[in-house]
């Protein structure tokens, strides 16, 4: 009886060992199959570009429109800078930073970001008119492309005319050898844009001068005090910087500057 029991136990152990080995091999095979699928190279989509001859005049027109759109998109940053309030704002903030003698404070990224968002705020009414009168009717198929371009440019031209000096506009009209315009609608946009930029630079420099005056007074007072004390080797800027920052903070300089910039476009 004991021998029979031992024989049965040995047979059972052999069956268990075989079953464990089969389960282990099955698990290894399953893991290898998953790893193979995971390591398989992903499929890369192919892009085919066909270049052929245009069979209809409409095909040529569509191609030219696409090229014109790509050109406008590539020039979009320059258009945004040169036809909006961005120039005046960024130049004035640059003057403020130099007047305070804070070198790179605020950083260039902050100056550009602040100038852009102030530009969006100031230009929002004009861009809204351009979208309402030009872009949306064109997308709805109510007007042609030429009419849409004119309707989009009209509010932007209105903004530039308000900020452009007559002397600057007359300068570029005379240099272009064009006929004397009877009204604003007769002035070319290519003549209006450089006149607008020059006017913006003049206005920005005037505002910058007004910003510089109080800080120059502080620099002169500090320099005179240091010379009278015989401390000529000590840079006056190092001593005047805290006083200039204190003055700017006490008068709420950022509030006054932003308010003055926005009001100057009204």
Q: What does the overall shape look like?
A: flat
Quote the average pLDDT.
79
N-to-C span: 112 Å
Number of helices: 10
Unreliable runs: none
* Largest sheet properties: none
SSE order, one letter for each helix or strand = HHHHHHHHHH
Radius of gyration: 36 Å
Find the structural class using helix and strand composition.
mainly alpha
**Percentage of residues assigned to helices:** over 70%
Strand portion = under 5%
Q: How many beta-strand runs?
A: 0
Structure overview:
- With 266 residues, the protein is mainly alpha-helical.
- The protein has helices spanning 2-38, 57-74, 76-82, 86-100, 108-139, 145-163, 166-175, 189-228, 236-250, 253-263.
- Helix 4 (86-100) packs antiparallel against helix 5, helix 4 packs parallel to helix 8 (189-228) and helix 5 crosses helix 6.
- The model has no long low-confidence stretch (mean pLDDT 79).
- InterPro entries: FliP, T3SS_IM_P.
- One of its GO terms (cellular component) is plasma membrane.
- Plays a role in the flagellum-specific transport system.
